[in-house]
Design goal:
Elements: E1 7-11, H1 16-27, E2 34-38, H2 49-54, E3 62-64, E4 70-72, H3 74-84, H4 95-123, H5 137-157, H6 171-185, H7 195-205, H8 208-211
Parallel strand pairs: 1-2
Antiparallel strand pairs: 1-3, 3-4
This protein binds glutathione.
Residues 15-17, 41, 46, 59-61, 73-74, 131 line the site of glutathione (GSH).
Domain GST N-terminal: 5-89
Keywords: Transferase
GO molecular function, one term: transferase activity
Length: 213
């Protein structure tokens, strides 16, 4: 299939940030409208000069636009997808909604996704010695505590609202959902007492964008 004039997503199957992009596309009913290219992170394909030319930070996902521009950072890619495709907004419509969605998305990223990621990459074997070329275990353990505080924060928040940013599903839910999936993978369990967070997650897991990718 020719990928000219089409959006291309460079991703690695099973990794949490690329999964955010599939969920955003699924919400927009647009999974069939883009093509996917697998990047073999375990064999360091993301640390080649060809990949750095697309994303100097050497991370997946990356989106190539029909004009040939490259967009990295899952939030930026989600913004692009949200604006490009029809359907319910993932990033908010009014100024107030947009501000709140971005605030909550960043909290989900910082307090859960990134905290879990730093714990995984620094305080465990992570993806193995060829990828984890620098580790600081103390920093990783500190971020583990930050992740647990993040779980507690979202548990309190979700006691009084159906979705992370309020009454509507948004990209903040996607980020938190895959942050928790990453926590499972890193064997960082959600304390059973966090009933609101656990109930939210159960509800989300039946949502087609998460269950039918
Ligand atoms: N802030 C970036 C993070 C991307 C990221 O860390 N991706 C991981 C996969 S989930 C990756 O490429 N890891 C490879 C590495 O760090 O060497 C985003 O939002 O997309």
């Amino acid at each position: 299939m020719s990928t000219e004039n089409q959006i291309v997503i460079f991703e690695t199957t099973g990794f949490p940030n690329p999964a955010r992009i599939r969920a955003a596309l699924a919400e927009k009913n647009a999974l069939q409208d883009v093509s996917f290219v697998e990047v073999d992170v375990m064999n360091l394909e993301h640390r080649t000069s060809a990949f750095y030319a697309m994303n100097p930070l050497g991370t997946v996902p990356v989106l190539k636009t029909p004009e040939g521009e490259f967009i990295s950072e899952s939030t930026a890619i989600t913004e692009y997808i949200d604006a490009y495709f029809e359907g319910a907004s993932l990033t908010g419509r009014s100024p107030l909604e947009r501000g709140i969605v971005h605030m909550m998305q960043r909290r989900a990223e910082s307090l859960v996704m990134d905290a879990v990621g730093t714990y995984f990459h620094h305080a465990t074997d992570g993806l193995g010695p060829s990828i984890e070329t620098y580790q600081c275990s103390e920093w990783g353990q500190h971020q583990k505590q930050r992740a647990v505080s993040g779980f507690e924060y979202f548990n309190r928040l979700l006691a009084n609202r159906p979705f992370v940013a309020g009454e509507q599903f948004s990209m903040a839910d996607i980020t938190l959902f895959y942050g928790l999936a990453f926590a499972d993978f890193a064997k960082l369990s959600i304390p059973p007492a966090l009933a609101h967070l656990i109930a939210w997650r159960e509800r989300m897991s039946t949502r087609p964008c998460f269950s039918q990718q």
